[in-house]
Amino acid sequence: IFLYPGQTPGNFDAPCPYKITVYTGDVRHAGTDSKVYIEMIGGKRDNETSGKIYLKDGKFERGSIDKLHIESPFMISPVSRLIVGHDNSGSSPGIRLLNYIFILYKYFNG
Predict the structure, then answer these.
(1) Mean pLDDT by 10 residues, the chain (110 residues)
(2) What does pTM read for this prediction?
């Protein structure tokens, strides 16, 4: 088991950092100008949720790779589902979700 700063055995309520890499597809109309968010779901009973975490630093343009560092309010382990959405804002709010591949890593080393 890995503990993060502020966590003690049996207490996983401290914020937990993650590293996420987002691959935006390279097809017509891929990408978005909207504010993109994720929600991680999982845990022992598969009912814990991180809530919406907005991916503030991503560009999400056609053919791009965005490497982001986020923080969940607490550790979700294991992550069994990932919800991806956006707020429909911006001049080109459309998004081609089938062109996205999300790879989620627990972020262990600074």
Answers:
(1) 50 74 83 88 85 88 87 83 87 64 56
(2) 0.75
Q: How far apart are CA 67 and CA 78, in angstroms?
A: 21
- In the chain, where do the E strands start and end? 16-23, 36-42, 48-49, 53-54, 65-72, 79-86, 101-106
d(CA 89, CA 23): 21
CB atoms within 10 A of CB 107: 15
Q: Is 24 exposed, middle or buried (0-12, 13-18, 19+ CB in 10 A)?
A: buried
User: Which stretches within the chain are classed as H helix?
Assistant: none
Residue range 62-94, pLDDT digits in tens: 888 888 888 888 888 788 888 888 888 888 777
Q: Return the SS3 of 32.
A: coil
For residue 1, the model assigns a pLDDT of: 44
d(CA 2, CA 7): 9
Q: Quote the CA–CA distance of 36 and 41 in Å, as a whole number.
A: 17
